[in-house]
Amino acid sequence: MGAVRTSVRRRRGIPWLVLGLWIVVLAIASPFASQLADVQRDRAVDYLPAGADSTQVARIQEQLPGGETTQMIVVYHRDGGLTEADKATAEGQIAEIAGAHRLTGEPAGVPSEDGTTLMYPVASNEPGTDEKARDELVNDVRDVARGGDGLNVEVGGEGALATDAAEVYNSLDGPLLYTTVAVVALLLIVIYRSPFLWLVPLVVAGVANYLSMAVAYGLNQWFGTSVSGQSSGIMTILVFGAGTDYALLLVARYREELRRIERPYDAMAAALRGCGPAVLASSGTVAAGLLCLLAADLNSSRGMGPLGTVGVLCALVAMLTLLPVVLVLLGRRVFWPLIPRFGSTPKARRSLFAAMGSSAGRRPVTVLVGGALLLGALALGTFNLPGNLKQEDSFTSKPDAVAAMQTLAAAYPERSTQAITVITPADRAEATLAGIRGTEGVDSAAPGRTGDGWTEISVLAASAPQSAGETATIEALRDRLDGSYVGGPSAEQIDLKDTNARDRMIVVPIVLVSVFLILVALLRSIVAPLILVTAVVAVWAAALGIGGLVFGPVFGFEGTDPGLGLLSFVFLVALGVDYGIFLMHRMREESLNGAEPVPAALTALRTTGGVIASAGLVLAATFAVLTSMPMVQLVELGFVIAVGVLLDTFLVRTYLVTSASVALRRKLWWPGALSKEPEPPVPPKEPERMTAAAH
User: Fold this and answer.
1) Rounded to whole angstroms, how far apart are CA atoms 484 and 427?
2) How far apart are CA 631 and CA 691, in angstroms?
3) What CA–CA distance (Å, rounded) separates 217 from 307?
4) How far is Cα 292 from Cα 289, in angstroms, rounded to an integer?
């Protein structure tokens, strides 16, 4: 009896011990988590391909005398034509800017042919690579360059555009976190119908997010992992989305065990044994898929892989350790008013997923073919996706830098207003300059800084920025100038497009193979993993197709982010397989317990369908938060992933995977042991004495 009491006391002490360890971990992590914002970088090189020409140009420019150059264009415009007073105002303001800051060269005004616009290119090495100093410089210029009384003054150029983009990314952290928390809280209240229970997984997810910030900072300091506004925002989304999914699965199983096990500690232990392997496998699959982004050449994509993995793993650790001990310490009362009493049975109610399973079970082939045709039809919308997104179309609202670019494009249609930068070895500068001037499509070229064995040459194309003519000029310069690098804003856009196409060719097969191998190891089958992988690829194509139907006609977007295809593929495949694991793991569990293939599939859908639906809604809602952000690429990514998760949850998992499982029966588990028909039981032999008596 004493041994039993000792065992009970020990078990009661374990939750308090785990809680104490978490407090220690958070105390250690706190100083590091608070510094993540300080290492966040949103410069061009943080988003560019690692090996591209434009990236080399940006890096070498940082080493030239004066460091990195912040380039701006101050634009003065009056619809009826600039007056002499307007020109005097412009000269006075530019002189004031030159007197307050160390500019490279004397700013000279360039009037438009129609007399409505006057532009002053302004450049400074004052900020160097310091983003805060750059933003201060741009804002100081904007404070001086002001219009009025019909005179419109705008500050554009590469530096101003970078400042506007940084302002947007810096503003994401607060609204993104608050909106995500509010959305998850609302959904949890609806799902749990309890005034207390929803708060527990939400608080634990918040703790996991704080821990992920500390780990992300550590990766940056120890391994140089890049941290951008985009990657840190996605990490937050994954912590709350994936973490809440794991919490929903665990709480549902815990509630089930509380009805048949008296002590909460023992019920939680049984719940962890039951759903723990599925949660571990699903998080491992997501982490493996995200880590495949390390094979990408694009810096922003490669940095997103480790940060996304950190988010998922921190959510996993918190939901499998902190969440269980908090629930055990709070006891059954945390479920009030729907408290699962020991020995009770849940109220019998008509299950939506039981009805879905029945319809899929009656005509599995018909349902499977119909669903496949629907996904194929939706995928055709990808042909309607708008072209590549231009810099000026990257914002949902029009900042000052974009307005300046549009004014320049209208006022100077005959020339480029955005320089192409060529970096060439200093000892070949004259020959390179002659080659540039002899290249078709070049309007002018002028040498700039020299240092560290390199010379900078500024080139103006005869065509408008990011037009087909300017693209042809950049490509011609790269073909002609051997040993030199061609960069600048327009060249960066070309490199982004080409590198994203290259990354898709490399990363997509790696993701598919990695996920498939993990599923084979988990499910002991080849057929079941093939079905899951095929399903998520079809969902990705359909979600992109829906994006093609709404991005231009409904949202009014002028282009598609070049990285949308790759990032949405990685997230949808990894997260989609996540739900497939929940369903297939339960199906396999039922089969191992002796259930026939069809009842096993329908039971798995009935028991996990509600949890999967709830988890899918939460995950889709968290990614949908990105659609409220002011960056087009974030809106597009959030929309495609949210739509894909909903398709996966309510069409693919409930109907198509279940239908395929019913249609294939035991072949689903080929070549594993479950694919073989069980041997009929051997009847017992009649005892010999009975036989003798019969004789």
Assistant:
1) 12
2) 87
3) 10
4) 5
